[in-house]
Amino acid sequence: MFQRIIGDFRETAGAALRLTSLAAAAGVALFITISFLCAAAFVVVLDRYGLVQACLAGAAVFFVVALIAAAGYMTGKKQAEARAKAAAKSAVHTALADPMVVAAGLQLIRAVGIKRLIPLLAVGGLALGLLVGRQSAGDRIGDQTPAE
Fold first, then answer.
1. What is the rounded radius of gyration, in angstroms, for the C-alpha atoms of the chain?
2. Does 32 have pLDDT greater than 90?
3. From the centroid of its chain, how far is CA 132?
4. Mean pLDDT throughout 120-125?
5. With a threshold of 0.70, does the pTM exceed it?
6. Helix ranges, 49-144 (H)
7. Segment 74-85, tens digit of pLDDT
8. Residue 147: DSSP 8-state
């Protein structure tokens, strides 16, 4: 069970590293391309309209690029959160469907007894509810923080 979780973590980390390196390479190439295009556009606008208009045109181009990058970042962040939630649900389902976990639970019930186990489960459920409530409150607080 733990090997599968570790394997999933390794696969996710490897994919994230590959995507990050590809994004960095694409970003550098895009930056160089935009720099030359902006320099050419700046010279053309400078010759035709003057210095102030050329600077404003350059600012407008970089503003549009910044908006596109921000939209791409937010889209990627939402997709990553959705994948993480799906993976967490899958891991819990896999753990509960494992025959070894079910057998261990049955042995625990036999060893402790059902009358003693019910209060323990109630306290455990209360603790789990508080933990989930804290995490969801942290998620709400985390959503309000500015992007890095």
1. 27
2. yes
3. 19
4. 80
5. no
6. 51-97, 99-112, 114-143
7. 998 898 888 888
8. P
